[in-house]
Design a protein that fits this description.
Length: 260
C-alpha cells in the first residue's frame, strides 16, 4: 500500500495465510502520518493469492485472476475502505468504486516462479503525476458499508535471516551460486552493466533488464527452497556482472498479530 508514493505497508507478503487457509483476510493500516493537505493518492499493488509459504504463490497486479502451483483459487478481488474520524469523533467511510483505477502490473506468474519486465514498470504509477493510459480501467463499486472483520489470523511475514552464497563460480559463462542446505526465501540479485531490454533467466524465472548501472532482480510474491541459483542469458548475449546474491528467509511474526 502506497500513500503519495510512500510505502505504508509494514511487512512482506501480508496477510500471511497459515496452512493455506481460505476466507476473507483484511488489513488495517494507519496512513495518517503519510497524508498531506489537499490531494492525496492511495495506490495498491495486489497479488491475489493464497500464500503457501513454499513452494510458491501466485503473482501479480492491481487486479488479476491467478493460480499458484497446485493451488488454483479462481477469481479474486480486493476491496478498499478508507475510514476517517472527524474532530467530533464521527467515523466516515469511503469505499472503492469506478473512480478507482486498476491495471495489470508488469509481471506474471509462471510454473517456475515469476516473469518480470522491468522495462514495463512505470516508476511514477504510485503518484498523482502519473499519466493514466487506456490500460487503466475503473474498479467495481464496493457494497461494503463498514470494514469487514478478519476471519483468519492476520500475521505478517518479515525478513528473519539472509543467506549468502558459500561459493560462486562460472560454468560456460553462466554464474552459479551455491547456498547452504535449507536456504529458503525470496531471491535478491544485484546485477551490474546490463543492457536495456536484456533478458536473463534466474532458476527458470525471466527478468527483462531496465539497463541501470546497478539494478536488482528480486522475487516479489514467491519464495524458493534451493541450494543453488543459476543465471543464464535468454537472448544469447553476454551476461551482466553479478555483484551480489542473497536468499532472504521470511518467517511469520507472531508478535505482530493484529485483531479486529
Amino acid at each position: 500500500v502506497y500513500v503519495n508514493g510512500r510505502n505504508a505497508t509494514t511487512a512482506t507478503l501480508w496477510p500471511y495465510r497459515p496452512n493455506n487457509m481460505q476466507g476473507v483476510a483484511s488489513q488495517d493500516i494507519d496512513i495518517t502520518c503519510l497524508l498531506s493537505y489537499g490531494r492525496n493518492v492511495i495506490s495498491i499493488w495486489y497479488a491475489p493469492c493464497l500464500q503457501p509459504f513454499h513452494p510458491s504463490s501466485s503473482f501479480l497486479g492491481n487486479t488479476f485472476t491467478a493460480s499458484s502451483q497446485g493451488y488454483h483459487i479462481g477469481d479474486c478481488q480486493i476491496s478498499v475502505c478508507i475510514t476517517t474520524v472527524t474532530e467530533g469523533k464521527e467515523q466516515r467511510f469511503c469505499n472503492t468504486e469506478r473512480d478507482w483505477l486498476c491495471s495489470i502490473a508488469a509481471g506474471k506468474m509462471t510454473r517456475k516462479g515469476e516473469d518480470y519486465d522491468a522495462m514495463a514498470y512505470q516508476q511514477d504509477w504510485k503518484s498523482f503525476i502519473y499519466a493514466v493510459t487506456p490500460l487503466w480501467i475503473g474498479a467495481e463499486k464496493s457494497m461494503l458499508s463498514h470494514p469487514i472483520l478478519n476471519d483468519i489470523p492476520d500475521i505478517p511475514l518479515r525478513a528473519r535471516k539472509i543467506f549468502e552464497p558459500i561459493s560462486v563460480y562460472e560454468s560456460n559463462d553462466n554464474p552459479r551460486c551455491y547456498f547452504p542446505l535449507g536456504a529458503e526465501g525470496q531471491i535478491r540479485l544485484t546485477i551490474r552493466g546490463a543492457r536495456k531490454g536484456q533478458e536473463i533467466d534466474v532458476n527458470g524465472m525471466r527478468y527483462r533488464c531496465i539497463g541501470k548501472m546497478d539494478e536488482q532482480f528480486f522475487t516479489r510474491f514467491t519464495t524458493v527452497k534451493t541450494d543453488s541459483i543459476i543465471i543464464t542469458s535468454r537472448d544469447g548475449t553476454k551476461l551482466p556482472e553479478l555483484a551480489d546474491a542473497e536468499i532472504i528467509m521470511l518467517k511469520p511474526d507472531e508478535s505482530a498479530r493484529i485483531g479486529f
